[in-house]
Amino acid sequence: MTQPTPIRRGARAGHLDVALRLAADGLPVLPLRPGKAPFGNCRTCENLACGGRPNMLTPGPCACPLPCHAWAAATTDPDVLASPAWKTAWRRAGAVAYHPGGIGVTVVDLDDADAVAWAQAALPPTRTVATTRGQHWIYQGTTRSVNGVLKGVDIKSLMAYARWLGPGTGTLAALPDAVRALTVKKPTAAPSVPRAVTVPAPAGGGQCRHRSPAYLERGIAMAEQRITDAASAVHTTVYRTFLAVLSAHGRCGCLTEGHIARLFTAAQAKGESARHCIDAWSNARTALGM
Asked: Rounded CA gap, 128 and 125, in Å?
């Protein structure tokens, strides 16, 4: 991770100016709304068309003509950053963010003094950046991104974004195994054996807009991962994931019973019953008028 020229506190540089400077130094950046949420940059992605979550924090497989949302929008291309597509976003932006995984680093986001104290005792020193309530500890190397690995501790690396708060101080250290271990979901009980459930695939009939089988495969894989990563509200996550998959792939005849079985297996591995899976699938179809 390069260390861009620090921006003076007294300088009133616009967010786009900051973003262009960071991009020139190799940081893939994107605008954030006030409140630190990303913009929904592409109308094609509204209503879960790309398979992303409703809050747009995690995009799905997207072939949008415009910059997609969340970490997938991060870029170093100055023409994209200053494009008409982002004109309104930068004017309304509350901050600049970057994609840590895109530059090969991991951010350990420490949200309060207790979390900082834990890091000082448990992790090797590295580059640190002060935040509003705590610190970002930045390490060289990438890993999965998981929120809430400990109280007040989030891991932001691949498929995630972090707010740019300055270059920080200190020297980058290699990502320690202690951080990687936090991203591994540990079972709290012996998982039940998933029961095979057969659900008919949607008949389809609409024109397929997918450019290749890889588009569908990526969508199913990301949906499985989204369910697997759910740390809470599993019922809601399963339903919303089913809704996203059906919204993107349910009307053109791409989905097969094998694809559906993969989603059900992921849900049952998180503790959902076969009946809950069937109900969530049926409710998602009803919500979409299928």
From this structure: 8
With bands split at pLDDT 50, 70 and 90, how would you rate the model's confidence at 258? confident
Q: Could you give the angle at the alpha carbon of 25 between the alpha carbons of 28 and 130, nearest 5°?
A: 75
For residue 153, count CB atoms less than 10 angstroms from its CB and return exposed for 0-12, middle for 13-18, buried for 19 or more. Answer: buried
Residues 253/205, Cβ–Cβ less than 8 Å: yes
Instruction: Find all residues with CB under 8 Å of 65, minimum gap 6, and list them.
Output: 42, 44
Predicted TM-score (pTM) of the model is 0.58
- Tens of pLDDT, residue by residue over 164-208, are 999 999 999 999 999 999 988 655 444 444 555 556 656 555 555
In this prediction, residue 196 carries a pLDDT of 56
Helix ranges restricted to H, the chain: 15-24, 78-81, 87-92, 113-122, 177-182, 213-228, 234-249, 257-269, 274-287
Q: Yes or no: say if 23 and 78 are a contact pair by the CB < 8 Å rule.
A: yes
Contact (CB, 8 A) for 150 and 109: no
Strand order in the sheet with 162-163: 29-32, 95-98, 162-163
For residue 92, give both structure tokens: 């309304």
Alpha carbon distance 190, 232 (integer Å): 18
Give the span between the Cα atoms of 168 and 188, in whole angstroms. 37
